[in-house]
UniProtKB/TrEMBL annotation:
Gene3D superfamilies named in the record: Glycosidases
InterPro entries with a match to the protein in the record: GH (IPR017853)
Organism of origin: Mesorhizobium australicum (strain HAMBI 3006 / LMG 24608 / WSM2073)
Protein name: Beta-glucosidase/6-phospho-beta-glucosidase/beta-galactosidase
Length: 394
């Protein structure tokens, strides 16, 4: 078993930072909607009290570059300085579905402009902090290509152009990584791609083959980044650093059919899925997003941690689990409050309520990880360490 080394805590808190436009033209800004942009220092400290010292957070490109080539960092610097003040390690999302309106995402200019933005952001971060910076250049290339390029659900509201959009986003991610590495060669990168399982009817070979082809599409963006597929896009193995995987309760389904419920005989164990990805890319993995809603929150965390530990015992290097989103947020389409987080909306005196059952489950899982850490440091795996807080595990 190989120990995590990348993050300051095994559990990460993910702040929902989507900033795309809906089909009705409304631009979302989830950092604003959850008040995290104003309360970032308080939010970071709340997580640290529970042993979470690493987070995923985001920049809002559309606010920073309101005019072409002019960068206004006033929406970002308070968050960056809050992270520095609290000693919070941040994986910064640079493009979480949103971009400035004055750029055509299907034009060659998009890749160049995004690379310049990434370079400018890296310069700001490098000037403000001395630690190794972490980035997620483009969030969920696969999902964005489907939702924005094939089904018109989010911007750019296209249909039948998913393949074109995917290749543009891959090229943009590569250009951003190159630009950031010119500023700080120490920089680390994660992907954040959906981890899915799609199955066919048991007695229909044709449907099973179609389902398997669809399932394998989940690896296209990662293959392109690594240069395993369409190397003319510029991909090379060094563009895959930590392979981040997003996994939710509805990530398994029957092709052209319903979601496979947890516990169903066709439901594939998460550990098996993680082993497959690790063998495919030979890179450390992280659960870059995972979570469930309402009463399912603690039981889902219980399941995911058990499967992650199973995968680790089978030799998979897993750097951490990001609870996402860590704050309840208003839904994209209708604004209803989605009760998914450890923390709730800010209330009186600016305090956020805490989901007690989620807090208790997190403490219990932290105790398990601490016990494993002690086993590693005293048993046959001596020398391994897990960043688990003693305070959280009590």
């Amino acid at each position: 078993m190989r120990e995590p080394t990348a993050f300051n805590s095994f559990f990460l808190g993910g702040f929902e930072c989507s900033s795309h436009r809906r089909a009705d033209g409304v631009r979302l800004d989830l950092l604003r909607a959850t008040s995290h942009d104003e309360a970032s220092e308080t939010d970071y400290r709340e997580l640290q009290r529970r042993g979470i010292r690493t987070v995923r957070d985001g920049l809002r490109w559309h606010l920073i570059e309101k005019e072409p080539g002019n960068y206004d960092w006033s929406s970002f610097l308070p968050m960056l300085r809050a992270a520095d003040a609290t000693g919070t390690q941040v994986v910064w999302d640079l493009c979480h579905y949103g971009w400035p309106d004055h750029i055509d995402i299907f034009s060659p200019e998009f890749v160049e402009r995004f690379a310049r933005f990434a370079e400018a952001a890296a310069l700001v971060i490098h000037a403000e902090i001395g630690s190794v910076p972490y980035f997620c250049p483009v969030n969920e290339i696969s999902y964005w290509s489907w939702a924005g390029g094939d089904t018109g659900r989010i911007n750019p509201f296209a249909n039948g152009l998913g393949g074109k959009l995917k290749r543009i986003l891959v090229r943009a991610a590569i250009a951003a990584i190159d630009a950031i590495r010119r500023i700080d060669s120490r920089a680390r990168f994660i992907t954040a791609e959906p981890l899915i399982n799609v199955v066919g009817y048991p007695h229909d070979v044709g449907h099973q083959l179609e389902a398997e082809r669809y399932r394998l599409c989940q690896f296209e963006a990662l293959d392109m980044l690594a240069g395993l597929q369409e190397p003319e896009l510029g991909g090379r193995p060094e563009y895959l650093d930590i392979v981040g995987l997003n996994f939710y309760p509805d990530n398994q389904w029957l092709l052209h059919g319903p979601t496979i419920p947890f516990g169903h005989h066709a439901y594939k164990p998460l550990a098996d899925m993680l082993v497959e990805v690790a063998q495919r890319y030979n890179r450390p993995l992280s659960m870059s997003e995972t979570g469930a809603e309402r009463t399912a929150r603690p039981s889902w965390v219980h399941y995911v941690v058990a499967e992650v530990l199973e995968a680790m015992q089978r030799g998979v290097q897993i750097e951490g689990i990001c609870l996402y989103p860590i704050i309840d947020y208003p839904g994209w389409d209708n604004g209803r409050m989605c009760d998914v987080g450890l923390l709730g909306p800010r209330g009186e005196h600016g305090r956020r309520p805490v989901c007690k059952r989620m807090e208790d489950e997190l403490a219990e899982q932290s105790r398990k990880l601490l016990a494993l850490q002690r086993e590693l440091t005293s048993g046959p795996y001596a020398g391994g360490t897990y960043a688990v807080s003693e305070a959280t595990s009590k």
